[in-house]
Amino acid sequence: MRLIDVKAFLNFDEGNLELETQLLVEFDAAQLAEIAYAILSHCWGDPKDEVQYSEMIALTTMDAVARDKIRQRSGHLKIRKSCELALKDRLDWLWVDTCCIDRRSTAELSEAINSMYAWYANSDRCYAFLHDSDTSSLPTERDRRFIEFNGWPRWFSRGWTVQELVAPGNVHFFNHKWQCIGDKQGCAPALCSIAHISVDVLERGLGGTRPSVAQIMSWAANRRTAREEDRAYSMLGLLGVHMPILYGEGKNAFLRLQLEVIRTVDDQSIFAWGWTKEWGCSSSFLADDPNRFQDCSTIEKTDREKFNRILVQSLSKRVLRRFPFAKEGNRVLSVTNDGIHIRLPLRLHQHFTDSALFSATLACHDTQKGSEAITIFMEKRNSGYSRCFRAPVVVDGEGKQPVTFQSVLLPYRGSIHRKVRGPLSPRNREQARISLSEIEPDDVVIIVLGPLGSGKSNIINKLIGMLPEPNANALDPCTKTVSAYTHVRKGKRFVFIDTPALEQDKFQSVPLWLGFIYRRSTVLTGVIYTHNIAVKCTGTEGRNFRVLCKMCREGAIDRLHLVTTMWHDTSSPEALEMERVLKEEYAKFLLDTGSGYKRFDNTPELAWKIVEGLTEEMTDKGRAQAKISTTDIKPNDVVIIVLGPPGSGKSNVG
Are 79 and 49 in contact (CB under 8 A)? Predict the structure, then answer.
């Protein structure tokens, strides 16, 4: 660990130049055990404004012009002010991450990241610099100036500052003028409301009551780092694990972190992510992002004896006779490249021809809801288990099966390689085509329907980056069977289902395939129905829209978008008249009850705008996550009331 010699730096910075002055001194572990030092916690500015290791080393030997340029940087001021604070606190040494780590060395960077929690924990003083705060005390309410950072100074949105807040015992906060505005011990309640870290942890650190893995993960939810991998690396010390640093691995870093935690810590709360979510599925039992743990801030691990008492109430007599074995039966047995081998107490809820739905009881609980163990749902198919985010629909006689211990293999690598974007250059349809059996539970699935010549296949071509079909604008069907095509965008895999024309003799296979898709995916994300307004009505439109109503039903009407297409000018008088007839006569019920409406201008940009309107999670189900009580409205909130008659689209504003 390298430390700045506080007195040498200040003396040199005041103009007392000595060529032999050594500003950075390296210490081994034995020496560090005897050294008291201060440490800086801050938000990096632009790298060119910070003082890097190579510049700090050369500071005493460079020419005066170059030295003066460095002294004008904001990063140099942070070092100087921190040195002054350390000297005032009678500390001779200071650590600053910008200049004390040689980031050109991957080995040194890896060692620093794996040691950083201990370095902060061992510091005698931590100076937390809130560069964008101008108040005289630590904020206690959200400020609209920091709306980009959830209402708080930027420091509280940074991924690395979680451990920089938790690890040191003595943290002092400073505003942009380097005036002290509070300390961790005295401001623990305020910091708890900002960072969602318990007062107990803030006051006693991790040496007191050890938080659950899920709770620690929740601290990093909705925080940001410059590198995606740092979302995981910044939590190593908090979780008490070590692993190699591999920049370039992306989200795989968070997967590796969870696997290392499972190998090291006996804590099933790591599987509790998303436990309050009401819809969706995942092919992986491990989260792909710390944000998945945002509903876990009050989850605690249930000790084994207490958990056993909970299980006794629901175990079958056969299992109770073997209970001494069962008490030790819910631990992870092994982690392999196929999955996580574990014994869990399972209860069968529903059984279908090709699948079964189970609930698994985890050895953890939510402190806000009492001591009842947390339950997650999982679906079993021939290909294995997948995670479900929904409670089963209870039918008389169902869900009363006894709990039994079962050995299961939980997959965790379901979506890594499927979410590689691939080339942007045009490709043929076969390269993007997949079998319907390859649809995964966490895919975004959208089905595209339409009559003959409506251009539905053309929309899919625009979405997946294909060249138009040779006969795309002819009244000959391009699609004769139900087909699936994929495209990766913004880390999500979209699956677009192309269907035969919506004519009576062509549409018979679609309901069969829809049933198959619904069994593979908990929620069909959206339906796009296309209609060419250059073609006169044929009399089948009424039937087509009745089919759409039955398909979507009342609860999913807002998942349907009607899209009018035309190969040339969609604003011609004939097209506008056809559009009016379509909206006012045939599609009026759908539009009045929540369906969206778009006009497609034959561009990829608008095609994706249509899709993104379907995939936004602000539907009635998604809105539950954004909904608050009227008593939660704050005096400085901007409150807008939206009024309107039925069908006016007022809910769509949200």
Answer: no
